[in-house]
Design brief:
heterodimer, A: 111 residues, mainly beta, four-stranded antiparallel beta sheet, B: 113 residues, six-stranded mixed beta sheet, globular
């Protein structure tokens, strides 16, 4: 079975802090994705990566950056957390245009 | 722009009955994939069913089936013999060329005993 793990289930941070969300997949997938989920808006794509060292902006990249130094790991970085970044963050991975498999999500609260 | 619309924010169904969740999408692509994902209270997103646009036959997975109407750009999910464990948020999603997913707003389904 594909396994996608995220470093934290819940996270509380202060405004202005730098926040790292880590995602690891164990199936050698080329593609990795970061989404945020908000009520009434569904999931929206923040950033994605098709290979190591590669990154592409999604629909809502502002205020975020990413890092992919190894194939299995994709990190989402909030350079200076703000209250409007309080949300659920979901990581996913896939091969080519196949099914995306999701991690359990991180619920981030920025105070 | 490609969009996915789920017009039913909440639905409820009695255990053992059948329920249909609606989804429409907009795209100019001719080859694409459509998905239904389920997110139970545990928050883990789980694939329910997948449909390739070039296949006319509707996908089926046990109690879950879809009604795919390509010309109408409609992709509804039917759940037969509803079970309490089907209680979840359901998301319809469209996969663009390049493998990115565009999600609908979600439908929260409650199965009542």
């Amino acid at each position: 079975d594909v396994k996608v793990t995220q470093s934290s289930r819940y996270l509380v941070k202060r405004t202005g802090e730098k926040v790292f969300l880590e995602c690891v997949q164990d199936m050698d997938h080329e593609n990795m994705f970061w989404y945020r989920q908000d009520p009434g808006l569904g999931l929206r794509l923040i950033y994605f990566s098709y290979d190591v060292k590669m990154k592409e902006k999604g629909d809502i990249p502002e205020g975020y950056s990413v890092s992919r130094e190894k194939k299995e790991r994709f990190s989402l970085i909030l350079e200076s957390a703000s209250t409007n970044q309080t949300s659920m963050y979901l990581c996913a991975s896939s091969v080519a245009e196949e099914t995306q498999y999701f991690g359990p999500g991180t619920r981030l609260l920025v105070l | 722009a490609q969009t996915v619309t789920q017009s039913q924010p909440e639905m409820s169904v009695q255990e053992a009955e059948t329920v249909t969740l609606s989804c429409t999408y907009d795209t100019s692509e001719s080859n694409y994939y459509l998905f239904w994902y389920k997110q139970p209270p545990s928050r883990q997103m789980i694939l329910v069913i997948r449909q390739e646009a070039y296949k006319q036959q509707n996908a089926t997975e046990n109690r879950f089936s879809v009604n795919f109407q390509k010309a109408a750009k409609s992709f509804s999910l039917k759940i037969s013999d509803s079970q309490l464990g089907d209680t979840a948020m359901y998301f319809c999603a469209f996969m663009t060329q390049g493998g990115k997913l565009i999600f609908g707003q979600g439908t929260e389904l409650s199965v009542k005993p």
